[in-house]
Amino acid sequence: MTPATEINCGGNLDDVQRTIRMVRDAGKHLEITHLVVTGVNDDLQKMERLVNWIASLGRDIPLHLTRYFPANRYDEPPTSLAL
């Protein structure tokens, strides 16, 4: 998550990661979904860091990559299939 993404989409990466760790440490079932939006958070190097960070917590945590489609107030084109 970049500062621009935090401003435009809300959220804070440190808070998200802390919450994920808390859920994992509590032994609860955990799955993570990453909404991929072209031009916002589709950088492959950053996605690789995300995958590696999740794997460092446990290789049994499912990561779902989902494709963005326009809705509500954000009307950019759907996530590219070219990833």
What does this structure look like?
By secondary structure, the protein is of the alpha+beta class. 41% of the residues lie in helices and 12% in strands. It contains three helices and two strands, in the order H-H-E-H-E. It has a two-stranded parallel sheet with strand order 1-2.
Distance between the termini: 18 Å
Broad shape: globular
Strand order in space, largest sheet: 1-2
N-to-C SSE string, H for helix and E for strand: HHEHE
The whole-number mean of residue pLDDT values reads: 88
Largest sheet: 2 strands, parallel
> How big is the Rg?
14 Å
The residue ranges in which pLDDT falls below 50 over 5 or more consecutive positions are none
Helix content: 40-55%
Report the total helices.
3
Structural class: alpha+beta
As a percent range, the share of strand residues is 5-15%
Number of strands: 2
